[in-house]
Amino acid sequence: MVERVDRRWSVLRKPLIARNRRSVATQVFALELVVVVLLVFGAIVAQVLESRRNSDAEARNKSIAVAETFAHSPGLLAALKTPNPTAILQPITEATRKVAGVDFIVVMNDQGIRYTHPIPSKIGQRFVGTIGPSLHGQIYTESVHGPLGHEVQATVPVFAPNGSIPALVSAGLVVKHVTAVSSRQLPVILGIGAAGVAIATIGTALIARRVKRQTHGMDPVELARMYEHHDAVLHAVREGVVIVGQDGQLLLANDEARALLGLPAKAEGRYLGDIAGLSPETVELLVSGRTVTDELLHVGSRLVVVNQRPTDPNSRAMGTVATIRDSTELLALSGKAEVAGQRLALLYEAGAGVGTTLDVERTAEELARVAVPGFADFVTVDLADPVLHGDEPTAGAVNLRRTAVHGIRADYPFYPVGKLTAYIPSSPMARGFDSGRSQVVPDLADAPGWHAQDPALTRRIMDYGVHSLITTPLNARGIILGVVNFWRSGKPEPFDDEDRSLAEELVARAAVSIDNARRYTREHAMAVTLQRSLLPRALPDQSALEVAHRYLPAQSGVSGDWFDVIPLPGSRVALVVGDVVGHGLHAAATMGRLRTAVHNFSALDLPPNELLGHLDELVNRIDQEETDSGGGIGVTGATCLYAIYDPTTRVCTVATAGHPPPALVAPGGEVVFPDLPTGPPLGASGMPYESTQMELAEGTQIVLYTDGLIEERTRDFDVGMDLLRAALSQGDREPEENCRAVLEALLPEHPQDDVALLIAKTRVLGPDRVAERDVPSDPAAVADIRAWSNATLEEWGLDELSFATEVALSELVTNAIRYGSEPVRVRLLRDRSLILEVSDGSNTSPHLTYAAITDEGGRGLFMVAQLTQRWGTRYTPHGKIIWAEQAFPALVPAQTPPRHEAPEALPLPSM
Q1: What secondary structure letter does DSSP report for 769?
Q2: Quick one: pLDDT at residue 771?
Q3: Which of 170, 463, 692, 761 has a CB 3.0–4.6 Å from the CB of 155, allowing a cystine?
Q4: Which among 480, 468, 478, 474 is positioned nearest to 505, based on CA atoms?
Q5: Strand partners, 422
Q6: What are the Cα distances from residue 720, in Å, to 12, 582, 716, 725, 735?
């Protein structure tokens, strides 16, 4: 190594010396240039300083002389005493300025206000400069930035005969005008300096050009760096480099060339033919000097690629240089790397493209698509039937349903999607499903177990060109969900063990996604079943409202939306709609608890505001219980709207707990959203709720809904309300038609939240079905009430109910007169049953008792309960109402109240 460095250094020594000469010449030129520049710069600075000093002195002297001359000029004091000194002095100062060679002469008063100036607009303004010394009789010179620029000026006093100073005179020059003359000498100095620089440049350039030709433009540092880089690169590259001289001697070989050719340690400087270990073919090629490109050469057990070029294209005096590259391992590695890259890309694509949804069938289709055509020509996915319904496969026969098929052609010969197949034990599908291990069938023609499954089908598959198969079980968390079959027809090479590994890795990733989808399917089905079991399955019979409803669960899971229609005593009907925040089983279970509570509270016949108050207390109690238990989840939020409609008065009483307001659709199609006092959501604050009463025209439609109908990610709340208004304003439609129209107009294709919609059209229980009268506070009035009720029932065709009605009314009216307070009133309603109502002004609640045999009283309510279907008490702001219902005789069918034309349609409540 030391000999090689010494030899190369002797070759490079002469150019280095020449380069040193050129470097010295360059340094001398630089020194000459610096000296000339410094001399020229010094001369310029001296000239500038001298001219500036002389110019400043000359300007000051000249300004003083002109100012003093003008200040002592005769007639100046007389002009200053005139009413307009400027008119007299301005022409004189301008004429004097031009003759005297100054730039300005300014006459001013003792306050510094100008009488004259070269710029007429400056007359009358304050003088720019110092006037204090001159007012004391001194001559003052200064340099200022005035109206004309940078100025040198002198200010002198104007003395009056009495010695006072009534005015001042200032004269001066602009600095640039003073220095302009002295600057004319600078070009001479610069010219002389430039000539010196030019002579030095030309002389040095001639010398440098000669040195450059001798050293090829490099200095010793560059030559040394070039050698170091050359040596480092030569031995660091993973490619052999060999330089051979004209006489066949090896001049240079890097480390890679020594390893590829098997050269000894001291091979450089020797003739190639004398080096042991080189094959004759290698020696012949390297000493031939011919130009070759990518020529293959066998060197021992290696296959190398040789490229050879002459070192000098114009002359071969320097020999040749050859590069040698080993291609034995590279070819094998490149092929493996390409295959590995393809498989890695396939797995990456599977990770990103399989399992994008929680749908079992969709995930199976994604798995089939991702493997075609990169890995297989056709893919079929067979799953156990319970998996498609969210359950785990059952033990026993291998019955699998074809879930997905995908391939390079659409006319595949396999079982179609949806077919349930019972695989025999000898088939690869059954063996893979039972054992949990992949089954590789390199040649389907030699697979009797597969042929025995369905000979006709297997023959069609073989005739189609399918020749190889891998069956891989879908194993997720120790459960075999099905099998995936990879088929090859277009690719000639059969599946092997490496393909088995890729298939297992691919299916393992998809199996987790399919199992997640299966679990989601099971939980979703359970939640939907639970939620639907908690919702009303059928609406109760009632005559006050014509009701249509819709409930649409969200695709992302069940939620806590619910609605209800609850008949109340007195032919009234309660409408309820609510929403529990969140999704999943907890929200559905909470919804069921709240719905049950609403039913229980409505049985007490509470006003809407009181019912919501009780419901709010219940939610707070649930939250407290869950918090105390330490492991539960409380009610994260719930809203509710409760409304009661009375068909006899057409009054609808509404209270809301954080729920969107209802929409009211008039018979003519006008839609309004009433302005209701919106209380806080349930469980939020414990504040009392308010009720609002609205008198509705017959045929008005009350539209109740949850926020999933109007709120959507792509639109604001107000936009949803406008869309709802537009959907309901299309003419006089029935509730069922409005339900369809609203859902079509507002719901997206895939709603993200549950939607509950309830539309109720009001009916009226007309005067022909209602009979009422006041009762005097006299026990003798009971007989009149019995006679009146018999006449009413006879008019309605309900004579069979007269006895029971007489007895019930007698007991209720007697109790009201005896234990209640005025006013006492009786009302009979003919709806789907006969309803008896006795009201009084007392809040005392009657109780059903069981009288002993010896008791004289206490049997009234007992007889009422025996003679009627049901009875009860409800409280009003003015007292209470005792009611009882009797079923119609079998020959008198229950009828829906006919629609009555109101004398004048009432307007809808305004917002």
Answers
A1: G
A2: 92
A3: 170
A4: 474
A5: 399
A6: 88, 21, 7, 9, 20
User: Which range among 251-265, 536-550, 566-580, 878-892 has the greatest average pLDDT?
Assistant: 566-580
Query: Which of 857, 848, 863 is CA-nearest to residue 809?
Result: 863
Gap between the Cα atoms of 90 and 583, Å rounded: 96
**For residue 508, what are the contacts with CB-CB under 8 A and spacing of at least 6?**
475
Residue 839: strand, helix, or coil: strand
Which residue from 770, 725, 751 is spatially nearest to 908, judged by alpha carbons?
Answer: 725
What are the tokens at 130?
């110092």
Q: Which two tokens stand for residue 208?
A: 């440098």
**For residue 85, is pLDDT > 50?**
yes
Q: 576 has which bridge partners?
A: 564, 642
Q: Is it the case that residue 726 has pLDDT exceeding 70?
A: yes
What distances in angstroms separate CA 799 from CA 111, 514, 785, 791, 891, one per listed residue? 125, 69, 16, 9, 12
pTM exceeds 0.85, yes or no? no
Average pLDDT, the chain: 81
Hey, is 858 helix, strand or coil? coil
Using DSSP, state whether 130 is helix, strand or coil. Answer: coil
Which amino acid is located at 358 in the chain? Answer: L
User: Is residue 668 pLDDT above 70, yes or no?
Assistant: yes
Please tell me the distance from the alpha carbon of residue 705 to that of residue 792, in angstroms, as a whole number: 41
Q: What pLDDT sits at residue 6?
A: 45
Average pLDDT over residues 682-691: 84
Strand order of the sheet with strand 420-422? 420-422, 399-407, 378-384, 479-488, 468-476, 439-441
Say if residue 50's pLDDT is above 90. Answer: no
Q: How many residues does the chain have?
A: 911
Cβ(233)–Cβ(251) under 8 Å? Answer: no
Residue 393 has pLDDT above 60, yes or no: yes
Instruction: Determine what percent of the chain is predicted with pLDDT higher than 70.
Output: 81
- Per DSSP, which regions of 397-453 are E strands? 399-407, 420-422, 439-441
For 369, counting Cβ atoms within 10 Å of its Cβ (0-12 exposed, 13-18 middle, 19+ buried), the class is middle
- Rounded CA gap, 650 and 55, in Å? 110
Listing from the earlier edge strand, what are the strands of the sheet with 879-886? 770-775, 824-830, 834-840, 879-886, 870-876
Token representation of residue 220? 């010793």
Q: Write the CA distances from 287 to 254, 272, 303, 317, 862, integer angstroms.
A: 18, 8, 20, 13, 131
The secondary structure of residue 249, as a DSSP letter, is B
Rounded to whole angstroms, what are the CA distances from 530 to 135, 535, 561, 590, 639? 108, 9, 13, 11, 20
Q: Which residue has 């197949």 as its token pair?
A: 421
Asked if 671 and 682 touch (Cβ cutoff 8 Å), the reply is: no
State the Cα–Cα distance between residues 837 and 817, nearest whole angstrom.
14
Per-residue pLDDT band for 383 (boundaries 50, 70, 90) equals: very high
Mean pLDDT of 90-105: 84
Which range in 245-249, 357-361, 441-445, 633-637 is most confidently predicted, on average pLDDT?
441-445
How deeply is 416 buried, as exposed, middle or buried, from its count of CB atoms within 10 A (0-12, 13-18, 19+)?
exposed
**Secondary element (H or E) of residue 157:** strand 149-158
Segment 399-427 mean pLDDT? 91
Q: Which residue has the tokens 């940078």?
A: 150
> CA 185 from chain center: how many Å?
74
Beginning with the edge strand found earlier in the chain, give each strand of the sheet holding 140-146 in spatial order.
104-109, 167-174, 149-158, 140-146
Q: Which amino acid is present at 98?
A: K
* Residue pointed to by tokens 């011919």: 290
- CB atoms closer than 10 angstroms to residue 810: 18
**What average pLDDT does this structure show over 125-135?**
86
In which band, very low, low, confident or very high, does the pLDDT at 12 lie, cut at 50, 70 and 90?
A: very low
